[in-house]
Specification:
Pfam families: PhyH. There is one protein chain. The chain has 267 residues and is α+β, with helices and mostly antiparallel strands. The chain is built from 7 helices and 12 strands. Strand 5 and strand 6 form a beta hairpin. It is globular, with a radius of gyration of 18 Å.
Amino acid sequence: MSDARPAERFATRGWLRFDTDPALLDWVNHALPAARRAVSDPALSHWLDCGGTWFVGVDALANDAEGRVGASGPLRGGAVDFITRHIAPMPPLHRAQVSVTYPGYPQPRRGESEAAFRYRERRDSAHLDGVLASGPEKRRHVREPHAFILGIPLTDADPDAAPLVVWEGSHAIMRNALKAVLMDGMSRDPAEVDVTDAYVAARKQVFDTCVRVPLPVRTGQAVLLHRLLLHGVAPWTPDAKSGPDGRMIAYFRPKMPGGVRAWINDP
């Protein structure tokens, strides 16, 4: 993916799926045992939610800032090359999320309201990462501006085994809606600007106008999402199969250099 067309597709669609990459397959061989240890670690058992059908696994993978896991080399491959060429130099990496879904997903999360669970079932719990709801009224703020979202599958599963789903082109709608609110409130800490109303209205526009695209991936592939792309996780269909590890994906969401201002203004 070295020519301009993938960059144009990413700018228009907000996502790219990268073909099987030997460099990623080698990395997965090291990352999978570490991910399995995380899933079985009693200290991380609180991440098993949705009635045992989702291991949320935030910061659960023991990688370093260059993506090394155990004896692996740094995270490399076509997806990383694309990021450094067309987005920005690769920032330091946090410990990756190890997101694992199992047959029966979704079930209600602990403390999840009936309305929120209906949204999870019917709208795949579609969201923007880093736009977090807090307080009794669940008001939303941009608390964790990310540079991008990079998903690397660690196991193989059927395409209908709770795949990642995106709303193609939604990053443009979400940017326009949130930018108006954030720019108006930038005289104060942008993380304290309430974006709830703009976010909810833009999300509805996305559902009405953008195509929902499932993005199943297999080991050796990778999927890259624009940080403003609306995305979620589809239900696990009754006939879908996986191995005993479930559908397991490592997600990297490094911090956006420049914070919220860069998050909303940069391409």
